[in-house]
Amino acid sequence: MSDEWVPVDVEDEHSTDSAPQFEIAKSYRESGAHVVIGTDSAGPIGGETFVQISSADYSLTRHFYFEPVAMDRMTSFADRFIHDATFRSRSLAGTADWKQVAEIYDEAARRIEVVFEEHGLLHHRVGHPGETDHYETVRNCLRTICKDVYHEVDRQVRRDDLIDGLDTFIADCLDRAHEDATRIAAQRETCRQD
């Protein structure tokens, strides 16, 4: 079973499989700011690792997507955000590259996820192996499509190709999600009939 949060049709009220997993790996204060680094299995698709920085003047959360992230990289980001006023200002204004990537990706990922939700594929009942298998197939498919979107958004933003062809690429990924969700829903229905 994956480490991601699973919305569950609960069969008994004592099931613990539906609880999101939130873990703080590090928490510290620096220059009047509080930094929390951790994982949140209910975070955005592919963005379970996060850094949250808050002070009396600002609050910001950054998710790191689709890659293992070293603690040093996350603390470096937090330190830069706290000590570099220009970077902090750009991050809060949404003009820093990482923030632009996150905003475009998060919106696209939500749209892709809705496709699978509309097909009724993002829920399963605990203790039903066939449903769990289909659910894992759906999550893997969803994650693969979102990962493709993330990497293309990241590539275009960081190369300053913004946004040539990106809308078309995202639309193609949505079409791919519709096709995959339709296929998986049909397979699930066939299994239920058997």
List keywords for this structure.
flat; disordered N terminus; alpha+beta
What does this structure look like?
The chain has 2 domains: 22-93; 100-193, no CATH class. Residues 1-18 have low confidence and may be disordered. It contains 5 helices and 4 strands, in the order ββββααααα. With 194 residues, the protein is an alpha+beta fold. The radius of gyration is 19 Å and the shape is flat. 53% of the residues lie in helices and 15% in strands. The protein has a 4-stranded antiparallel beta sheet with strand order 1-2-3-4, with helices on one face.
Condensed summary:
The protein is α+β, with helices and mostly antiparallel strands. The protein is built from five helices and four strands.
As residue ranges, the low-confidence spans are: 1-18
The H/E string reads: EEEEHHHHH
Which percent range fits the helix content? 40-55%
| Beta-strand content | 5-15%
Shape: flat
Tell me how many strands there are.
4
Mean residue pLDDT? 84
Question: Secondary-structure blueprint of this entry?
Answer:
Elements: E1 22-30, E2 33-40, E3 49-54, E4 59-64, H1 71-83, H2 85-93, H3 97-118, H4 129-158, H5 166-193
Antiparallel strand pairs: 1-2, 2-3, 3-4
